[in-house]
Design brief:
The protein has 223 residues and is α/β, with parallel strands linked by helices. 40% of the residues lie in helices and 20% in strands.
Length: 223
């Protein structure tokens, strides 16, 4: 069982800490019917990418004001779908406490989704797509997360469920850990995102603080 030492852990939110799949599928179906595309296909291809980017592409919305309003409407539909906490998320965040920063959708959606699931907002706060010029797979979200808590991304562990997010973490220079909550181990490996570690879910990860560093125990055994 590998053990690593890092300055901080940077978490993805959707698909890693919480599962909003029912609401996401419903929202894409609504928008697909309204804008004339296959919502199920869009949901699959958009996973792990910034909603502002994917909604603009699929709905062909160029006007910033219109896109911003549609993002809010989409996220309201997701919240109505009832997001839930994923296994191990609450316990791990309680262990990590101030040493974690999630990379999350938007300033509107994030606090509502976390509150709905009972997942605590980390003391270090969070970075959303509103805070960065480029979304995943670009490194911007995780570089911003590391900067927010005053550490170098190269000394962080990024925890993600999607290949695009794992690529973002790697591009930021961080070590990456994949959770198989939305993609199978085989699909993650085939994606060439090349995470340093792959686990079933967050129940396979535990942490403790020692002299200002985060000691991370990772059970990456097969199941």
């Amino acid at each position: 069982m590998p053990t690593i030492t890092v300055d901080a852990i940077l978490f993805d939110m959707d698909g890693t800490l919480i599962d909003s799949t029912p609401g996401v599928l419903t929202a894409w179906d609504i928008f697909g019917r309204e804008y004339g595309f296959n919502g199920a296909v869009a949901a699959h291809e958009a996973h792990g990418r910034r909603l502002t980017d994917t909604l603009g592409e699929w709905c062909k919305i160029d006007a910033p004001e219109k896109l911003a309003a549609e993002v809010v409407r989409f996220e309201e539909a997701v919240i109505e779908g009832g997001p839930i906490a994923l296994p191990g998320a609450k316990e791990l965040l309680a262990q990590v406490d101030a040493g974690s920063t999630p990379s999350a959708p938007t300033n509107v959606y994030t606090p509502q989704a976390l509150a709905r699931t009972g997942v605590p907002v980390p003391a270090a706060g969070y970075v959303t797509s509103d805070d960065v010029p480029r979304g995943k797979p670009e490194p911007d979200p995780y570089l911003a997360g590391a900067a927010r808590i005053g550490v170098d991304a190269k000394n962080c562990l990024v925890v993600e469920d999607a290949p695009s997010g794992l690529l973002a973490g790697r591009a930021a220079g961080a070590r990456t850990l994949a959770v198989c909550t939305s993609h199978s181990r085989d699909k993650i490996i085939a994606s060439r995102a090349a995470p340093d570690f792959i686990v079933k879910d967050l129940t396979r990860v535990s942490v403790k603080w020692v002299d200002g560093k985060v000691i991370v125990d990772i059970d990456d055994s097969l199941w």
